[in-house]
Amino acid sequence: MSKIEKAKGFKHSKPGLWLSIGTSAFGVLSIVKDVRKARSEQDNLLLANAVVGALALVTGTALLLRELKHLGDDDVLAG
C-alpha cells in the first residue's frame, strides 16, 4: 500500500475520526468569539451567522461520532 493510499484511509480510521472531532472542538472557540462580538455590537446578522455555524459544527460532530460508532460495530474482535 502506498503512502497516498494510507493517507486517504486515515480519515476513516479511529485516530482520523478522533482528530476530526478534536479539530471541531477548536471551531467552538471561533463561534464563542463571534457570539460575544455580536452581542456587544448588537448585530443580529452576525449572531445568526454564529448560530448557524454552531448548528453546522454540532451536526458535523454528530456525524463523526456516528461514523466512529459504526466503525467500532464492524470490528469483530471488539465484541
Describe the secondary structure blueprint for this structure.
Blueprint: H1 3-10, H2 14-41, H3 44-74
Q: Distance N terminus to C terminus?
A: 28 Å
The tally of beta strands, per DSSP, is 0
Radius of gyration: 17 Å
Largest sheet, in brief, is:
none
Structural class: mainly alpha
Tally of individual helices: 3
Strand content: under 5%
- Average the pLDDT over all residues and give the rounded result: 83
Instruction: Give the topology string: H per helix, E per strand.
Output: HHH
Low-confidence runs of at least 5 consecutive residues:
none
What's the short story on this structure?
The protein is an all-alpha fold and 79 residues long. Helices cover 85% and strands 0% of the residues.
List keywords for this structure.
79 residues; single chain; mainly alpha
Task: Report on this structure.
By secondary structure, the chain is mainly alpha-helical. It is 85% helix and 0% strand. Helix 2 packs antiparallel against helix 3. The longest helix has 31 residues. It starts with a helix and ends in a 5-residue tail after the last helix.
